[in-house]
Amino acid sequence: MSNVADSSQFAPIARFALDPALPVPEDVLAQTATLLIDTLGVAAGAATLDPGRITRDFACDFHGAVREDHRATLLFDGRRCAMPGAAWALATQIDNLDAHDGLNATKGHIGCALVPALFAFAEQRTDLTGRQALTALAMGYEVAARAAVALHATVSDYHTSGAWNALGVAALGAHLRGCDAEALRHALGIAEYHGPRSQMMREIASPTMLHDGSGMGALVGISSLLQAERGFTGAPAITVEGPEVAHVWADLGRDWTVVRNYIKPYPICRWAHGALECLRVLVGEQGVSPDQIETLEVGTFAQSAALFPGMPETTSEAQYSLGFALAAYLVHGRLGPTEITGDALRDPRVAAMLARITVRGEPRHSARFPEGRWSDVTARLKGGRVIRSGDCNARGGPEAPMPVADIRAKLSVMAGRALSEVRIGALWEMRERLLDQGAEFSQLAGLVYPEPDRP
């Protein structure tokens, strides 16, 4: 991409992002509410994992703020620290239970960074209604999605989500804080410049707690806006104002990409979900019993074939796995947080099943990436019978939506280790209550602090 920018391209983006009465269609607000509650369920489920504990402790130790109004509360924790640190800790926590939403076209995740930022900014908006919060969040999704598409189209490396969802975070904050167009323009420029241009395939090759970089995306996005408010300059963001990407932003406010975000049924990298759907078909619809399987051959797209191949030693490796995810699903009949943590990583039954699985890259599936996450599975059963799943796409997006009942069940699976079922039920009720005229966002905020009987 050239370094030439056209500032006139920015004017309609600023009008969209900063409009306090932004007209958002009802179906978009409803989808945004569902994504918000789903993300909070993942955040609760991740609260007991090591990455969440480490980042929350680190934020409290090293992200202090002198003024009380510069602090935000750590969700599912209760302690307070500086706003950028609070968002970083929660986004990193969510990122390390890989069950949060995403958008195929971005090859990554938006809500993982935006939801933590929403709560950090909202603490200074005691008058914020549920609909206002959802409007700001939906707007942030749209800005982040286009920043992602623009970046992927103009650079050679495949960067993590933090590289571009930082811009959505900055826009969300500018909207909630009533900033002017100049502050937003510089905030987007700073966020783009400092956003982590981390290389996704390096993390795929060696999975760690770094995951998809969304923690740094949240930190950079909030910091960028707060700096721009004080006069720090950084415009332009060329992924916003570059002439090569003008078409990416041209439909802003007309095409609401948030309705195409997927919800994950499993806390595993989305690249494995096509093959997992194949297994669901084989086991659930064709009656294959796992103990019948002699070998399992998986055809998948190149990125999926590059996922961690062996028996994982850590939850990070398990979440960026393909063979292990399939083996665990077959052995346990489900795939939730319990199946990718603790003793589940050393289950000899899963290791034995993994040894029967082979993976190959399949060009026809690669040709359909990133629009789809396609795979096929061939099971050779004891006795010689061969059963094929056919081509399967990942479930949870607009092409194969999860039923509402399944999304509700997922909330209990994800959050059940941290929250009581009463609290989980109350969170789910907020999915619709936030849409009510006059409903206060603080009603939801009050549900994301520690329960009295759970530290």
From TrEMBL:
Database matches in Gene3D superfamilies: 2-methylcitrate dehydratase PrpD
Span of domain MmgE/PrpD N-terminal: 24-239
Ranges in coiled-coil conformation: none
Domain MmgE/PrpD C-terminal: 266-422
Family: Belongs to the PrpD family.
Protein name: MmgE/PrpD family protein
Organism of this sequence: Roseovarius ramblicola
